[in-house]
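2024-03-11 09:14:02 DEBUG pipeline.ingest accepted 1 chain
2024-03-11 09:14:02 DEBUG pipeline.ingest length=463
2024-03-11 09:14:03 DEBUG pipeline.predict start
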Amino acid sequence: MKRFNYYFSLLKRALACEELDYTKGKLSEGLWVLAIPMVLEMIGESVFAVVDVFWVGKLGASAVAVVGLTESVNTLVYAVGIGLSMGTTAMVARRIGEKNKRGARIAATQAILLGAIASIPIALIGLFGPDWVLRSMGASEATISGGAGYTQVLLSGNIVIIELFIINAIFRAAGDASLAMKSLWFANFFNLVLDPFLIFGWGPFPEMGVEGAAWATNIGRALGVLFQLVLLHRRGRINLRWIHWRWHQEVIWKLFRISLGGMGQFFVATSSWIILIRILAPFGDQVLAGYTVAIRLLMFTILPAWGFSNAAATLVGQNLGAKELDRAEASVWLSGKVNTVFLTSVGLVFFLFPEFMLRFLVDDPVILEHGVHCLRWVSLGYPFYALGMVLVQSFNGAGDTKTPTFLNFVCFWMTEIPLAILLAQFVHVGPIGVYLAIAISESFMTILAWWFFRKGSWKHIDV
């Protein structure tokens, strides 16, 4: 009973956005207070991903395929957003650790401005070239004619995705993890409510098909960004004022330099996912649909695990700012231990009962069969993913975005893609070869990340 009361107390403190000094006190307590809202935040994103594909799945294999193809291209948007959020986390957390709140506020505003600028080229591609985007990904003409609107809407409104990433990184880096959670839940609530209304034309809404899912996403996330901006100016540790929105060239440049490594590592990673789906495309829409459904379910568990990784990044950044180097390293091993227990348990369930898990999302027997293969073989690497994502995020939290970029290049471009082509096309294993390549390359990355982390050079990065 005493242990239950202790964890219940931690839960209340985490959700109440209690202000803690994460550079002092019991490390495990700080980790849980940070990680609980971060995990809940990622669960909210996971629920969105699964429910979104649930509604789209009712439109048939072509609709699910266009979502999968567009999401693969949209990972480039995530690369920009996540890359900028890495630089943001490193700079804001370091300033908070140094007890320099003015510096943290300036870093926050410059990150938001930089995100808006970065979204413009992607918006232009989405606005004027959705057919070209889908055709270059190997989509059939039927898929293009029925799904180009989805691609156009989603890519044109990419600014709301990028800013949602950046502003939540500001909250997390400052220790306001519960505000990040509430922002994402706020955005996803409207997204999920609007999905069936806009897809199927319920009530006074027009029936927009798969394009309606894109509009629901953009509207929900736009409302989420507005909610974030209100919180930034009225609540939490950052508490912006209009004076902080002035252009600071030196801060912008430093932020861009750090974020460039983050964008680079995710560009390498996400472009590899695009190539993987391009390798799968010739096997047909039903294979793509099965892959898309399975990956959404995998992300349902991977995203909560990112909560512990993000907590580790915040702890690393703040403790390095406070010159607590040993505490920064200890926070990584503690986060990795918890994450490994969680994901290993989930991976075992996915490997043993893949069909049972996927039946909640799809009832087409052919799509289900392909989804089962993907879920089972990719989940083999879960014990490695768990530690690997914590180690990589810890590099980023320290401001060392170059090491993860190198790791991604070696493990994805030099290992995963050649192995997927070899197994799928030359060894004739088919789509299963792609799934095995994912598990092998991700596990290899964890081994390399562990070796670089033990060297300790990440403790001495200037941010």
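2024-03-11 09:14:41 DEBUG pipeline.report The mean pLDDT is 86.
2024-03-11 09:14:41 DEBUG pipeline.predict end
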